[in-house]
């Protein structure tokens, strides 16, 4: 959890504009949340405040309220966006390899449940 001043500072590092504690109070008012300068902001409240900012910022409430700031960046590249031209389309059975399964008697000539006794 972070305080209002830290929340404003972190918001300022994300966007082109500088946020003040008063701006955070205004966000809280818009989100119908009670807030004061000494209130700690948790992930849930942070998300409610972030939801009031337009355009949306590239962080979640949990990330901005976390102890570690700025949030760690992944070393993996972001996954490309995927679009489906035909929702629900799947490969037909002809496209998939076929496997034949023998359902005949067991290969050793005995029924699977029979056992020899006396060994």
Structural account:
By secondary structure, the chain is mainly alpha-helical. The longest helix has 11 residues, at 4-14. It has a two-stranded antiparallel ribbon. The mean pLDDT is 76. It contains four helices and two strands; from the N terminus they run E-H-H-E-H-H. It is elongated. Residues 68-119 are annotated as: Disordered. Residues 108-119 have a biased composition (Basic residues).
Low-pLDDT runs of 5+ residues are: none
Look at the structure and give the mean pLDDT: 76
The SS-based structural class is: mainly alpha
Main-sheet strand order equals: 1-2
Give me the strand/helix succession.
EHHEHH
Shape: elongated
Strand content: under 5%
| Alpha carbon gyration radius | 30 Å
Major sheet summary line:
2 strands, antiparallel
Considering DSSP H and I runs of 4 or more, what fraction of the residues is helical? 25-40%
Distance between the termini: 71 Å
Quaternary structure type: single chain
Tally of strands: 2
Query: What is the tally of helical segments?
Result: 4
Biased composition (Basic residues): 108-119
Region (Disordered): 68-119
Tags for this entry?
119 residues; mainly alpha; two-stranded antiparallel ribbon
Give the secondary structure arrangement, pairings included:
Elements: E1 2-3, H1 4-14, H2 21-30, E2 40-41, H3 43-50, H4 61-65
Antiparallel strand pairs: 1-2
């Amino acid at each position: 959890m972070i305080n209002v001043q830290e929340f404003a500072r972190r918001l300022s590092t994300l966007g082109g504009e500088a946020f003040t504690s008063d701006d955070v109070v205004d966000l809280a008012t818009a989100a119908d949340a009670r807030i004061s300068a000494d209130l700690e902001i948790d992930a849930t409240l942070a998300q409610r405040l972030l939801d009031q900012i337009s355009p949306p910022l590239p962080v979640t409430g949990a990330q901005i309220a976390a102890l570690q700031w700025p949030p760690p960046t992944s070393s993996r590249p972001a996954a490309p966006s995927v679009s489906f031209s035909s929702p629900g389309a799947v490969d037909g059975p002809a496209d998939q390899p076929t496997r034949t399964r023998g359902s005949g008697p067991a290969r050793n000539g005995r029924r699977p449940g029979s056992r020899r006794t006396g060994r």
